[in-house]
Queue: 4 jobs
Job 1
Amino acid sequence: MKQNCDVLIVGAGPAGLCAASVFVNTNVQVVVIERDPFLGGQLLKQTHMFFGSKEQYAGTRGFAISDILKESVLQAKNIHIFTETVAAGYYPEDGFMLAIEQDQTLHRIGFKKVIVATGASEKALIFENNDLPGIFGAGAVQTLMNMYGVAPGKEVIMVGSGNIGLIVSYQLLQAGISVKCIIEAAPVIGGYFVHAAKIRRLQIPIYTQTTIRKAIGTDSLEGVEIVSLDEKWQSIPGTERIESCDTLCLAVGLCPMSELLSQMQCETKYVPELGGSVAIRNHRMQCTNKDVYIAGDVAGIEEASSAMLEGYIAGVSIAEDLQIATPKHLVLRENSVEFLKAMRSGPIGEKICSGLKKVEESHV
Ligand SMILES: Cc1cc2nc3c(=O)[nH]c(=O)nc-3n(C[C@H](O)[C@H](O)[C@H](O)COP(=O)(O)OP(=O)(O)OC[C@H]3O[C@@H](n4cnc5c(N)ncnc54)[C@H](O)[C@@H]3O)c2cc1C
C-alpha cells in the first residue's frame, strides 16, 4: 500500500508522542509508526515515580505519564497511528519509508518531514556461556515483570549499578524476587544516591570493581563466576568466586538506535558520552539531511524528561518549516529549550553537555 503524509514519526515513546502532540488541532497529516502493540515506549514498563520537574510529570509513575501523553494524540483526526508496525527501511530513490505490519502488510509511506524517535537498544556483555537461558537484559526483565506479571526467576544477580540496575533491582525485590547482589565494574556506584540508598537499606550488597567471568549451567543458568578488578580494570587473580543464581540481569547501558538515520544519509558520529553513534544535528533537532529530525534516546541516551522536551522542539521546528507554527508553538519550543538547559546544568548533565558539543559544533 502506498500513502503520503506531511510528517512521519517513527517511534511512539515519550519523544515521538510529544512530537506528535504538536500537530494536534492542525491540518498537518501525520503518520506515527510504532513496532509495539502499545504507545508509550519505555514508560510503559516504569512503575516507579519519576524524578525531575513538575512540568515533566515528576512524582507520576511512568505508565501513567504515557496515558497523559497519548490522550490528545489518539483523539486527533489528522494523526494516523500504526502499532505493531516496524519502520524497516528508507528507500532514497523513491523517497519512502517501508513499514511492515505484524500481519506482513507492507506500507510505502512518503513524507515531507520525518522525526526519528526510535529510542535505544540494550548493550550486552561478552563472557563465557552468555547465551544460557536465565540471562536477560534489564529491559526484558522489566517487560516480563511490569507489563506481563511474569517473574523472570527466583534468585537474581544484577550486573550494573546505574539507575536502571538499581531501579530494576528494587522492582524485583518489590515483586518478591530475591536479589543476591549487584556487581559493578567501576569503582563507584553509577546511579543516583536515592536509588542506591533504597537497595542498601534492604541490605543487598553492591560490589564495586567486580565483574562477571562466566555463567555456569548446562540447560539453564545455575550460577556465575565473578572476580574483583584492579584500578586498571584487570581481574585480580585469586579473587574469583562462585555465586549461585537462576537469573542474571544485565543493566550495562543503552545504545541509540540510529540505523534509519544512516540510511537517510544523515551524518552520524560516535560519541561515548551520548551512548554510541548519534546524528549530527542543530539546536532545532534537525539532522544534516534537512528533512530529518531526531528526538529522545536516539539523539543521545538521557531521560524521558529530555526525550519529551526534544520531541516538542523537533515537532515545533517542523511546524515552522511547514509554515503552520503559531505563537503558542513557539512558546512551547522556547520553554522546552529552557527546561532542557536547566536539566543539563547540574553535575549529572555535564557528561551530556560535553557529548552534545561534539555533535552540535560539527554541524554543517
Ligand atoms: C529502568 C528505567 C528507569 C527509568 N527511569 C526514568 C526516570 O525516572 N525518569 C526519566 O526521565 N527517565 C527514566 N528512564 C529513561 C527513559 O525511559 C528513556 O530515556 C525514554 O523512554 C526515552 O524516550 P524515547 O521516546 O526516546 O524512546 P523509547 O521510550 O525507547 O521509545 C522508542 C519507541 O520507538 C519504537 N521503535 C523503535 N524502532 C522502531 C522502528 N524501526 N519502527 C517502529 N517503532 C520503533 C519502540 O518500540 C519504542 O516504543 C528510565 C529508563 C529505564 C530503562
Job 2
Amino acid sequence: MVKEILRNELCEIMGTKYPIIQAGMGPFSTNQLAGVSANAGVLGIVSTSGFGYLRGDPAKMTKGVSQVARTLTDGQGGTWQEQLKRALHRVEESCREAKGIFGINVMVSSEVAEFAREVIRTTIELREEDPEMKDRLRVIITSAGDPLPMTDIIKPSGLKWFHVVPSVRHALRAERAGVDAVIASGQEGGGHVAWEPVHTIVLLPAIVRAVGIPVIGAGGFGTGASLVAALALGAVGVQMGTRFLATKESEFHPVHKDYIVKGNERDTIVARGVVGPLRWIKNEAALEFTRLTVRKAPGVYLGEPEDLADVAQEVRAQEDKGWDAQFRGDGPQALMPGGEVAGLVDDIPSVRVLVERTVKEAEDILRNLHRKYLTD
Ligand SMILES: Cc1cc2nc3c(=O)[nH]c(=O)nc-3n(C[C@H](O)[C@H](O)[C@H](O)COP(=O)(O)O)c2cc1C
C-alpha cells in the first residue's frame, strides 16, 4: 500500500499520513489551504506573515494591503492576537473530523523578530487553553532569520520545531538552537531565496551530510518523482509551495495560479523581496522590479544582506505597487512569488487529487526502480 511505502520518521514526528508539507505562503493566512491539506494527509501550514498588516494603521494601508488584512480576519474585530487565535480555531475546526494535522509558519528575520515572538507566544497560549488545538496544531516552521533567539520560547512548548535554512552553516546553527528538523531550501523555490544561491540538488545532500537531525527538502518539489529524488538524497520528506498555490482551494488570486500553470521553467526571476531576495513569476512588473533592484539595491545580487531601513524609497514603492496589483489580480502589474517548478505545473487540481497523485507517482517510481535495478 502507498502509505506504508512512504510512511517514515517524518510522518511520526508530524503525525501525518505522508511525508509532505504544504508550505507557508504569505501574505494570505492560507487557512483554507491548511485545513484541506491537513485533511488530505499532509501537514497543512497556516501562514502568519500577513498578520503583521493588522498591526498597521488602516488609514495608511494601500488598498491591496488592507484587502489582504481583511482576508485574514472574520470581520469580528479585536486585536490581531485575537484574530490570529480565531483564525487558528477555524482551521482546527475544519480538520477535526478528518483528524488532520497542521502547523504555523512564522518568519523570524531581525526586522520582524519582536512581532514573531508575539505570534509564537499567542500560538502557544492558545494550545495551552485548548486541548483539541494542542492535538491538531503540532508543528511550528520558522524561517528567514536566526532561530536561536526563539529557543527559549519554542522548546518548552512541546511544538515540533522545523527551521528553513539555505546553507550548511545555517543548518548547523538551527541544530544548535534545538530544532527537530531543518528544511533545506534551494534556490529554485518560490518566495524568499538565499543571498548566496545554492540549488536543491547540492544543498540538500550537503545538509544531510552535515547535521544529525532529519532534513526536509524545499525548492523545486511538486511531483512524486521529485519526492522520490528527495528521499534518495537523504531527506525525510518535502515542503512544496508553488505546487500547492496552484490548487483549487488555495487563497491566491486565480490570475496568480494561471501564471504558474502557463509558465515554463524559465518564467521566474529573482529580485529584491520583502526581507531579502525573492523569486517572482516573470512578468512586466517583475522585469521592471528586477531592473530597479539592479540599480537601487545591487547588494541583492552580490550576496550582501541589506537592512530594511537602507532600501531605496523608489524600490519599496514599486514593491508595494506590485503587491497591490497581486491582490487585485492585475496580471502584468502584479508581483507574484513563484518557483521554477511552475515549469512542471500544468493544472489546478483539488488538494486531495494533488496529494493522491503525487503519492501514487512516488510509489510507482519506487516500485519500478526496484524492479528495474534490484531484481533479476
Ligand atoms: C507565494 C509564496 C509565498 C511565500 N510566503 C512565505 C512565507 O510567508 N513564509 C515562508 O517561510 N516562506 C514563504 N514562501 C516559501 C515557501 O514556504 C516554500 O519554502 C517555497 O515555496 C518552496 O519552493 P517551491 O515554491 O519550489 O515549492 C512563499 C512561497 C510562495 C510561492
Job 3
Amino acid sequence: MLLEKKIGFIGCGNMGEALVSGLVLSGAAKPENIICSDIAEDLLEAVKKKYGVVVTTDNVEVARASEIIIYATKPQILGKVLKETAPALDTSKLIISIAAGVPLAAIASGLHKELRLIRVMPNICAFVKESATAIAAGDYATKEDIKLARAIFDSVGKTVFIQENVLMDAFTGLSGSGPAYIFIIVDALADAGVKMGLSRKDALFLSTQTVLGAAKLLMESKEHPGQLKDRVASPGGTAIAGIHTLEQGGLRTTLINAVEAAARRSKELGDMMVKDFMENNKKNG
Ligand SMILES: NC(=O)c1ccc[n+]([C@@H]2O[C@H](COP(=O)([O-])OP(=O)(O)OC[C@H]3O[C@@H](n4cnc5c(N)ncnc54)[C@H](OP(=O)(O)O)[C@@H]3O)[C@@H](O)[C@H]2O)c1
C-alpha cells in the first residue's frame, strides 16, 4: 500500500534513518519515492549512498514533494520546522510526527488547518526492526491514514493504535522509555554474574540472551508470563529462591512506580510544549 506513495522525512537522524532503512530494506517503499531533508549534509549523503533515497537540505521541498510527511526532528525543533513547512501543507497530505511528548493538539495549533495528523511514538528498538510503536490519530485523519501509518511503522517493529489523550503518556512510560529499564536489568544481571565469578563478557552475553530468549518465548508461546514463571519455578528449587528475593526487593512495585513516573513526566513535558506552542502562535499572530 506504500509502494507508490511519496514519503518525506524532515530530520533524518537516528530515528529517521531507522525508518528509511526499515521501509527500503523490507521493500515496503521504493527508495526513489522517499525524500529526506536534514541540516547535516554529510548525514544526508550517507543516507543517500546507503538506501538510494532522494535527499535535500530544503524542508519545504520535502513537504511539497510528499504525500506522507514524517517529522523526525527533536521535539524542540518541531515548532520551527512546522512553521517553515506549513505553507506547503494541505489536506491532500498525511502528516506524521514522531516527536516525543508533543501532543496532537500542539501540532494542530501551529498549523491552523484541518490537516490529517497522526502522532507516533516508536522506541529505540526500531534500529533492529523491533520497535513497540503506538499510533494515535488526529480529528481529520482517516482509517486509510491509520493503515498507512501502521504500514510504515510495521517496517521497524510492531504497532498498536491508541487513544492519544488518555494513553499516549502511559505508552511513553511503558514502551517508549521501557528499553532503558531493560538495559539496566541486563546490566544488573551481568553484574550479578560477575559477582558470582563469571567473566564480564560471558555474564553480559548470558544476561542479554536470557532477556531475548524470554521475550521470544513469551511472544511465540502466547502463554501468560505468570504461567511461564511457574514452569521455571520448581518446588523448593533455585528459581523460586531467586523470585523470593526479587519480591523482597520490591521489583514489581519498583517497575510499576518507574512506568508511572515516566508517564507523569511525559504529561508534564507535553503540557509545557502545548503552552510554548500556544505562546509562539500568539506572538506570530
Ligand atoms: N531516538 C529514539 O529512541 C526515539 C524514540 C522515540 C521517539 N523519538 C523521537 O524521534 C525524533 C527524532 O529523534 P532522533 O533520536 O532521531 O534525533 P536526531 O538523531 O537528533 O535526529 C534529528 C535530526 O534532525 C536534524 N535537524 C535539526 N534541525 C533541523 C531542521 N531545522 N531541519 C531539518 N532537520 C533538522 C538534526 O540535525 P543536528 O543533529 O545537526 O541538529 C538531526 O540530524 C525526536 O522527536 C524524538 O523525540 C526518538
Job 4
Amino acid sequence: MLISVQEIPKVAVEEMNEIHSTEVDMVNKLYEKISEWENDKSKEQEVLTIFEEFLKDVVDHFLFEESMMRESNFFAYPMHKSEHDRVLFELKSIEKTIKEKKDFKMLKEYLLYNFKPWLISHVKTMDTVTAMYLSNFF
Ligand SMILES: [Fe+2]
Ligand SMILES: [Fe+2]
C-alpha cells in the first residue's frame, strides 16, 4: 500500500473527503499493479489502464474543487488552481513517458517520493483552508 486513508486529514466538506478517499484507493491500486509488473512484465497493459483511470480521477478531483471555489469566489482560487495545474502537468508528462517507454519504475518512484507527500501536504494546507471557507459559504 502506498497511502493509508488515515494519512489524509479530514476537511470540512464531506464530498472532498469522499473524493480523497477514492483517490487513495485508486493510487494504491496503481502502486500495487506496478509491483506486480516488476515480477511479471505481462501486466504492462493493466498498469497503463489503471494509470488512465487514476489520471481521470485526479482530473475530476481537481475540477470539483475548482468549480466550488469559483462558485464561492474563493480568494485563493488562483493559488490553489495553480498547484492543481502543476501536478496535472507532471502527471501528463509521466503519461507520455510511460506510454512510450513502458517502464514504470519512474512512475513508482514519482508516486512514492512526489505524489504521496504532495497529496498529504496539499490536503493538510490548501484543501483544509478551502474546505473551511466553502463550508461557511454553502
Ligand atoms: Fe483535494
Ligand atoms: Fe486541492
